[in-house]
Amino acid sequence: MMQRIIIGACFGLMSLVACQSKKKEEPKTKTETPTAKPVETNITNQRKDNTELKNAQKKFQKIEQELEQLKSQKEAVELDLANPGIYKTPDKFAATEKNYQQIQQRLAIVENEYEQLFEKIMELENS
Fold first, then answer.
1. 39 in any annotated domain
2. pLDDT per residue as tens, the chain (127 positions)
3. 119 lies in a domain?
4. 80 occurs within a structural domain
5. Does the pTM of the predicted model rise above 0.70?
6. How many angstroms separate the Cα of 44 from the Cα of each of 4, 15, 37, 48, 53?
7. Residue span of the structural domain in which 118 resides
8. Does some domain include residue 6?
């Protein structure tokens, strides 16, 4: 009987030590359960995307208009430069040439904006 008590005491002691070691091994951390985004957030994002798309389309139209104006101005200046009489007055030629260079620089900038905005609109329409 004494052996049973000793064995029982050892078994109980071993169980106690095992339980305590398990408690030490398991860190006490709070785990957050992932939550689904509320439907309102998705609707808000859709509205934001629609507003962003509309704003981009308006800006795109303005850029298209500016491109047309710049191309018209460039053609007019090219006609002036094609006139042989402009070369008789160096000041007028220099001013026209400078104007032509400025139009070309602005045209390059606006064309770049046009391309970037076009790509953005395509992305917004596909999302």
1. no
2. 444 444 444 444 444 445 455 555 555 555 555 565 555 567 777 777 789 999 999 999 999 999 999 999 999 999 999 999 999 999 999 999 999 999 999 999 999 999 999 999 999 998 7
3. yes
4. yes
5. no
6. 71, 56, 11, 6, 14
7. 54-127
8. no
Q: Which residues contact 59 (CB under 8 A, 6 or more apart)?
A: 117
**What CATH number is given to the structural domain containing 67?**
1.10.287
For tokens 């050892």, name the residue: 10
Indicate the number of domains in the chain: 1
- SS3 call for 33: coil
Amino acid at 26: E
Q: What is the DSSP string of 76-91?
A: HHHHHHH-GGGGGSHH
**Does residue 71 contact residue 107 with C-beta atoms inside 8 Å?**
yes
Structure-token pair, residue 117: 């905005």
